[in-house]
Design brief:
Elements (H helix, E strand, L loop, with lengths): L15 H12 L5 E4 L1 H12 L14 E4 L3 H8 L5 E3 L3 H4 L1 E6 L8 E7 L1 E7 L2 E6 L3 H6 L9 E2 L5 E2 L5 H7 L1 E2 L5 H7 L3 H11 L3 E2 L1 H7 L4 H5 L16 H12 L4 H13 L2 H6 L5 H17 L6 H12 L6 H5 L6 H15 L1 H5 L6 H11 L3 H11 L4 H9 L9 H5 L6 H16 L5 H11 L1
Parallel strand pairs: 2-5, 10-11
Antiparallel strand pairs: 1-2, 1-8, 3-4, 4-5, 6-7, 8-9
Helix pairs in contact: 8-11, 8-12, 12-14, 14-15, 14-20, 15-17, 15-20, 23-24
């Protein structure tokens, strides 16, 4: 029997009394409540590493529970002691949201309690379910064996399918039942699969690998964010696809992220998502860029932004800004970075050869890219295989600063919108000739008057 010390998890400590009361509420009617899914999976995985790491994994966003009691009965039990709400199609899916108070502050925690259920009809994220008293049937409807783990209040781990613990211990991700059947039930599981490869550094089970080599076209079409044909019904929303992509790229281990992306590329998933082809060189250089951005220079930008920038820097003709603008995976922040990246491409060759990069070029880039200068230059040079020592030298190159401030313009007697107009005029002149001094620019402004 495997028992885990869930009460020692740092992020749960403020809610410990509320969670214990939740368990006791079910005990009072002689019914059992279980932790289920991601929390149990990650708690068990953390226990496999070292004793000092137990309970120290990152904060869990979702805390899920499960019980054999049907939806209506759960609601009647809970409403006497907790604030509750239905979650999504709560009555259909048997899910209640329960507010767990924070013992230390007002930062309360919503958790979800779902009655055991089994699928009757599935279609993408939409499924018809019915209540069941069987924990085995409830486990059988989940996606991967490592997610079909339950835990009692005393910490005892329950593995109804008798495979989850073993697979998780070996670091292998497997579908429950037939991989293709599971994917046909919910196509988003394809992205979830590779997300767990990245976040949990998983190996792929042989049966899953064989199925991925023979993916039906409709499963790839479900992930195509740019399908707008009346002939193709979009089963999975672009919002859900975006969420899964972000979770994959937010994995802690850069090597695991790249490993997962290589596999996604092999099975044509990346091409479906981004309309571009990738080779091994791309992934090597993308990994180098992420290492430099995160580990060397400690720049706080998400890995997905770096990935898109790398695609753009290597394939500016095949993957244009116009193409990316209509891709729903691309955020406003990424679009802003891409527009700035176009400036870098104009003087790309000089950047790659720092000896020919003039002080005027670096001054113009720093002025135009502002706070994003270092990040964009690091990604650009990394993806072009420039050595780290040369990247550091490029960032240390001397540069000039635009010498005019708003106060300078105000002192000339200009007000309101005329201040902005004057600054833009002088800025344009200075970008064309960074040798222009403050006095020279103000003289030009005076002559304009």
């Amino acid at each position: 029997m495997i028992k885990l010390d869930w009460k020692n998890c740092d992020f749960l400590k403020p809610y410990l009394n509320g969670i214990i009361e939740l368990f006791e509420t079910f005990d009072s009617v002689d019914k059992e409540l279980f932790f289920v899914g991601g929390f149990v999976r990650d708690l068990y995985k953390s226990s496999l590493i070292t004793s000092s790491s137990k309970g120290k994994f990152n904060k869990i966003v979702d805390l899920d529970f499960s019980t054999e009691i049907n939806h209506d009965a759960v609601g009647k039990i809970l409403k006497t002691k907790f604030e509750i709400k239905t979650v999504g199609k709560g009555e259909q899916h048997g899910t209640w949201g329960v507010l767990i108070p924070d013992d230390r502050s007002d930062s309360n925690l919503w958790v979800e309690i779902t009655s055991f259920r089994k699928d009757t009809i599935t279609n993408g994220r939409h499924s018809n379910t019915e209540h069941t008293n069987s924990i085995h049937e409830d486990a059988s409807r989940r996606d991967f064996t490592m997610n079909a783990l339950y835990m009692r209040q005393n910490g005892e781990v329950i593995d109804p399918l008798k495979t989850g613990i073993d697979d998780l211990s070996k670091g292998v991700i497997k579908f429950i039942g037939s991989p293709l059947e599971r994917l046909e039930e919910d196509g988003l599981r394809l992205l979830r699969f590779f997300r767990f490869v990245a976040t949990h550094d998983c190996k792929i089970g042989q049966e899953a690998y064989n199925s991925l080599e023979n993916l039906p076209q409709n499963l790839l079409d479900d992930l195509d964010t740019q399908i707008h044909s009346d002939k193709v019904k979009k089963v999975i929303s672009n919002e859900r696809i975006t969420i899964e992509c972000n979770k994959l790229f937010n994995a802690n281990n850069i090597i695991s992220i790249v490993h997962s992306l290589r596999l996604m590329n092999k099975f044509l998933i990346l091409e479906t998502l981004f309309s571009a082809n990738f080779n091994d060189t791309f992934f090597d250089r993308f990994q180098s860029a992420m290492v430099n951005v995160k580990n060397i220079f400690d720049i706080n930008e998400d890995n997905f932004s770096s990935f898109i920038l790398c695609i753009y820097f290597l394939h500016p003709d095949n993957l244009t800004l116009q193409t990316l603008k209509v891709n729903p995976l691309i955020s406003k922040r990424i679009l802003e970075l891409l527009k700035q990246s176009a400036i870098i491409l104009r003087i790309g060759e000089q950047l790659k050869d720092k000896k020919s990069l003039a002080i005027d070029d670096i001054s113009v880039l720093r002025h135009m890219l502002k706070d994003d200068f270092e990040y964009l230059i690091i990604v650009y040079l990394s993806i072009n295989d420039v050595p780290l020592t040369d990247i550091k030298k490029t960032l240390k190159l001397k540069y000039k600063v635009f010498p005019i401030s708003a106060r300078d313009i105000i002192d000339t007697g200009r007000t309101g919108g005329d201040i902005s107009i004057a600054i833009k005029r002088l800025e344009k002149l200075w970008l064309e000739d960074t040798d222009l001094s403050r006095q020279s620019l103000l003289k030009i402004l005076k002559e304009d008057a």
